[in-house]
Design goal:
heterodimer, A: mainly alpha, 5 helices, B: about 425 residues, 20 helices, about 0% strand
Amino acid sequence: MSGAPGPAAAGLADRLAAPCRALAAAGSLLILALVVLVDLDILGRELLARPVRGVSELLALSIVAILFLQLPETLRAGRLPRSELLLDRLRGTRPRLHGLVEAAVHLAGAGLMMLLAVVSVPGLLEAWREELYVGAAGDFTAPIWPVRAVMVTGAALTAALFLARAVDALGRSARSAR
Amino acid sequence: MHVATALLLSGLLGVWAIRGDAGIAASLLARAASDAVSDHLFGVVPLFVLMGQLVATAEIGRDCYRAAERLFRGLPGGLGVATVVANAVFAAVTGISIASAAVFTRVAVPEMLAMGYRPTFAVGVVAGSSILGMLIPPSLLMIVYAFLAEQSVRAMFLAGIVPGLLMALVFSAGILAVARLAPGLVQECRPGMAAAGLGALEGLRLLAPVLLLVLLVLGGIYGGLFTATEGGAVGATGAFLLALARRRLDRARVWQVLVETGQVTAAVLFLIVAASLYTRMLALAGLPELALGALRGAGLEATGFLLAHLAIVLLLGTILDSTSILLVTVPLALPIAQALGLDLVWFGIVTIVAVEIGLLTPPFGLSVYVVTGTLGDPRIGLGTVFAGAAPFALAMLLVLALLLAFPGLALLPL
């Protein structure tokens, strides 16, 4: 995984640092919780013949949550893999064009993530209204809506970050034109 | 452009174009995001990544190197062989090549330079042998491929053992041969033995924890005691306890490990989501059938397809990172491989070896960048490391050819 670290100049994108970090922190804690959960399941199963109920359902839900909790900060930290061979070359020789291309790339990302956030809203409402759950009634159940809410939030924040990056890149491009 | 957004966009626009309905495309996007990774199997990703990060923190790499050094330091080129062997052992507890590259740059390169080894050789060995990290199970690439191909992670892990060991063997043999035939390429001068080697007991003591961890995790998975996901959790816990026992963890370090883990996990999972939409688009467009028809039309059967596929993978290796290459190529290549009757586990191993060659080739050889960056020595630039790693890329091509010629190497009858 590689990616250029963000530009040193303070920009719009930096103002989103705090919410990105907060979501990522929750995601990291969730990973830790998964380890503990799976360990407990193995120990309970092997030693006490009593597995923890619902581990595989919780794992399935958590993975989606982890993804969308971590996504904004991962983008911010420059850890989303990208192919930047061409862009790097432009950065040195044609800084203005580089800024424009960067802006376009990030705008595309913003549009995509915005769309994802919007089309995920009905799923969230449905899960909330109809109290959807995983597991089996009477044994183990976990509500689905929190994960759907995380999806919408994470996708929206990622979109906002992409957008802020696009604006910053446009600003850089304009500045280098002078 | 970010690889994941590129895949998502092409998937989205492709479905839109094929079905002529933006609504269907958008709902497929939503479905990919919520369903593609929503399975307990995907727990292996964060768990094994966490294990790898913790193992790196626990300085297990240094111990492996110390023990291997003791064994091989008497041989010409011995420290090179020691690096390869230590990497192979370390690879059995980590699934990421970058981790190996960073660890061994810090541990092995200064030592080799102090012993009069040529810088080109020293950094080349470290960059070259770092690819073992993802070839010897556990391996993040095998996990990703298993998801794409709907094969079991366990089967992939099993199939990786022999090719991984074979690779280490070829590397070691190559180093020994060069050290004997052209010693000037390896070592500029041979100062007397520096500090005395460790005793055998000391070596065993160094290796015991890591061997225990390997036995626990891989043994547990192979032996059917637990699933791959559970193996990841057990490994992460073991590595955590080990790092704790060595006083390598404070609160800040733990947090840093968790943050790193989260970011690698998100990057990989997001790519998988993107690939699932892209795969669906390809299937809707009927591209795999089209490509298959074209192949058959051109009179190319399995061999021709394999060579073309591997050539594309090698080519992409010069511009994309490993996970991205898998996600871009496998969705199209897999149905073809299946239709041609190729074994999909073997196909995965072959593809992964080809992908990993890309870690060493310019201009986007990630391992080389990591070694150069970690070293931070102005006298040793990217060019030097690429030059040093080149023989190892060639050795990998040789192993790739062997795997193609003798598929049995990757298919243990287990």
